[in-house]
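We store sequence with structure; for instance:
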Amino acid sequence: MELKKVLGITFLSGVILFSGTLSSVNASKMTVKNSAENDLPNVKILATGGTIAGSSESSTDTTGYESGALDIKTIIKAVPQLKKVANVSGEQIVNIGSQNMSNSILLKLAKRINTLLASKDVDGIVVTHGSDTLEETAYFLDLVVKSEKPVVVVGSMRPATAISADGPLNLYNAVKVSTTKEARNKGVLVALNDRIGAARYITKTHTTAADTFKSPEQGYVGEIAGDKVLFYNEPTRKHTTQSVFDVSKFDKLPQVDIVYGYQNDSRYFYDTAVKAGAKGIIVAGAGNGLLSDAALAGARDAVKKGVVITRSSRVGSGVVTHEASDDKDKFVTSDSLNPQKARILLMLALTKTKDPKKIQEYFKEY
């Protein structure tokens, strides 16, 4: 007999050992029923890889694993409890570590989601994703998905082969959230570690801890307690069907780079970004998004060459306030968006306009 452990479940010749409980499962019956056979909602899982699909030879390895080693069919089969809450089917978009997520993949994913949600046969979408850039993808989708139906992005902090892997429960919870009527018209949601976050507000705060995703200032919008999905807050910024951004006809996005501020920095990062074709630059400035004199000179020259400069902050939370000097310099400020999310919004804003005043309005609205 062959033992194989995937997603915290040990497979033994067609028998599943899960959390010490033995339950016989005929592998041929683990496919999810179609909508004609029950009244459960239909949920499509779009997989992009990441830790939730990660694998290692050691069950104690939680950092040196291979991301995106498992395909979505394997992941779904390893969580048979999904068939109790939805008619689930999977589709592999890519299978990568999220540090390799690109604009072209974001566009492919968004277009596929919009196509699926336009069908009456799909009630919700779950996107599996690596945790490192999960918040960026979630926020991008929050701005370009054109449906009130639930879209939930999910990942994990431990690979599928790890002791106490968090992926299976996170996936189960994400699917469950996507089936609730309360999740409709809340924008794109993120579900990890029993918490539900709005894409606009959630961020990764710890390199390895399971409770890494938090909303430091605005708070979570809900939680999963036992088998209940509970919502407490509403996202207040424009999203999804309220958004003016439409990527259906785009095959590329404007180049936007991020320049990190630090003591003794210089202007050459700005000069290099402009030379490399940047249409926008996000400044991860010190404190309230401040630039050194040298960096300020580089940023001002970039504006003269048609590049949109947006001041954000490296601090991690708080609003970057808009000052009279920003109007003079024709700078945009990021409101409470961190640099990586400010980049997402600026890319989309640049598909509509290069006017910093109009772009500033977008940062107030989204």
